[in-house]
Amino acid sequence: MTPFGERLRVLRNERGVSQKDMAKAIGVSAAYLSALEHGRRGAPSWTLIQKIIGYFNIIWDDAEELARLAETSHPRVKLDTSGLSPAATELANLLADNIEKLDEVELRRIIASIRAALNRPK
């Protein structure tokens, strides 16, 4: 499941909406919506994100957060480290080869560490 799929499922469940009803309302199939929630489809298009935001009547920060989650929810990630340092290539390969071995706590810790590093002044 992707971060976007997880949030979408939470929104549906909070509002008591079935996949079938939501899919019909936003103009997609229930199978597509299920695949989107389970991470078997790539990130949704901007147009579909806007339909979902409208469907749930989400505004401001919540709408921006949903769009951000969609941007970070590609289930198949490609990294090109050509031209980067050896450490960048090592990190990319280490994650690619071992990400399934990390539990949620470890993943969250790594994510927080990377975000903190990105936000440090240079």
Provide a descriptive summary of the structure in words:
The chain is mostly helical and 122 residues long. Helix 2 (19-26) crosses helix 3 and helix 4 runs antiparallel to helix 5 (60-71). It is elongated, with a radius of gyration of 17 Å. The longest helix is centred in the C-terminal third of the chain and has 16 residues, at 104-119. 67% of the residues lie in helices and 0% in strands. The protein folds into 2 domains: 3-71, 434 Repressor (Amino-terminal Domain) (Orthogonal Bundle), CATH 1.10.260.40; 86-119. It has helices at residues 3-15, 19-26, 30-38, 46-56, 60-71, 86-98, 104-119. The termini are far apart. The chain has 7 helices and no strands.
CATH superfamily of the largest domain: lambda repressor-like DNA-binding domains
Listing every helix as H and every strand as E from the N terminus to the C terminus, the arrangement reads HHHHHHH
Low-confidence stretches: none
Fraction of residues in H or I helices: 55-70%
Major β-sheet profile: none
Averaging pLDDT over every residue, what do you get?
Answer: 92
The strand count comes to 0
Q: Gap between N and C termini, in Å?
A: 34 Å
Query: Would you state the CATH class of the largest domain?
Result: Mainly Alpha
Give the tally of structural domains: 2
